[in-house]
């Protein structure tokens, strides 16, 4: 998984919702510093359940797709209702 790309998607969605890092941190029960690290691709030791919660607060769900070593970008987030993979391109 490309953690830097995931962080960029999280930052983009947070900003679309008009939340500061501090506001978002309160909503998901983390510190602002953890959110900053996450948005910069440094996941640290965030548990899967917490990551799922973070993504759901933003309106995303994890999307599991078959690994393809020849594809440069694998989609890993889906919009919860459509299950349509997001490209992550900004």
Describe this structure in words.
By secondary structure, this protein is mainly α. It has a domain at 3-58: lambda repressor-like DNA-binding domains (434 Repressor (Amino-terminal Domain)), CATH 1.10.260. Helices cover 44% and strands 4% of the residues. The chain is built from four helices and two strands; from the N terminus they run ααααββ. Strands 1-2 form a two-stranded antiparallel sheet. Helix 2 crosses helix 3 (32-39).
- What is CATH's topology name of the domain at 3-58? 434 Repressor (Amino-terminal Domain)
How many E strands? Answer: 2
Approximate shape: globular
Name the poorly predicted regions.
none
Could you name the key traits of this structure?
90 residues; mainly alpha; globular
What does this entry show, briefly?
This protein has 90 residues and is mainly alpha-helical. The protein has helices at 3-16, 21-28, 32-39, 48-57, and strands at residues 61-62, 77-78. The chain is 44% helix and 4% strand.
């Amino acid at each position: 998984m490309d953690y830097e790309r995931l962080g960029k998607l999280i930052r983009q969605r947070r900003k679309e919702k008009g939340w500061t890092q501090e506001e978002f941190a309160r909503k998901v029960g983390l510190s602002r510093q953890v959110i900053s690290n996450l948005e910069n691709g440094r996941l640290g030791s965030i548990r899967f359940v917490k990551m799922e919660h973070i993504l759901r607060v933003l309106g995303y769900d994890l999307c599991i797709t078959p690994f393809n070593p020849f594809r440069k970008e694998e989609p890993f987030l889906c919009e919860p209702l459509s299950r349509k993979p997001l490209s992550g391109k900004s």
